[in-house]
Amino acid sequence: MFHLQATKKESRGNDRGYTLIEILIAVTIFSLGILAVAGMQVAAMSANYRASRSTSLIVNAQDKLEELIALPYDDPWLQAAGNPPGSDTNGNTHQETTSEGYTISWHVIDDDPVPNAKRVTVTVTGQGGTTQVVSIKSL
Asked: What are 70-127's pLDDT values in tens digits?
């Protein structure tokens, strides 16, 4: 009547789980990956800042250059000699400061590169950078 049922222990050879060393190795590899991503993030943020600064400098320079080129040929702001508004003591370089803290200066040379032409060089300095743009205004 009574049947004795033999109990059999199941082998757990394949179901042991992870050892502490395996977990430590996995965490170390994961940590190295996270550190690499963090380093790339810092580099990307730095590159974005430099690009933003360069863009601001070139936009300010282009704006001033377009403003100057749109003036009549004999406008006082385009005079290479004399003492036009905002010029230095030699009358060659004009300068102004923007509300963002950029210093914009421009230098005008008459009859360069050809007669009846003015070479206008605009330089913008600020936030640790400098940029320069050049254009020719003809008569």
From this structure: 999 888 888 875 445 555 544 467 788 887 888 998 988 888 788 889 999 999 998 8
CB 61 within 8 A of CB 131: yes
What the block records as the tokens of 138 is 């003809």
Chain centre distance of CA 96: 23
pTM for the full predicted model? 0.65
Tell me if the bond preceding 85 is cis, omega within 30° of 0.
no
Q: What is the dihedral of CA 60, 63, 69, 72, to 10 degrees?
A: -110
In 3-state terms, what secondary structure has residue 75?
A: coil
Q: How far apart are CA 54 and CA 52, in angstroms?
A: 5
d(CA 32, CA 37): 9
Number of neighbours of residue 93 by Cβ within 10 angstroms: 16
What is residue 71's three-state secondary structure?
coil
Q: Which value, in Å, is the radius of gyration of the alpha carbons in the chain?
A: 35
d(CA 18, CA 51): 48
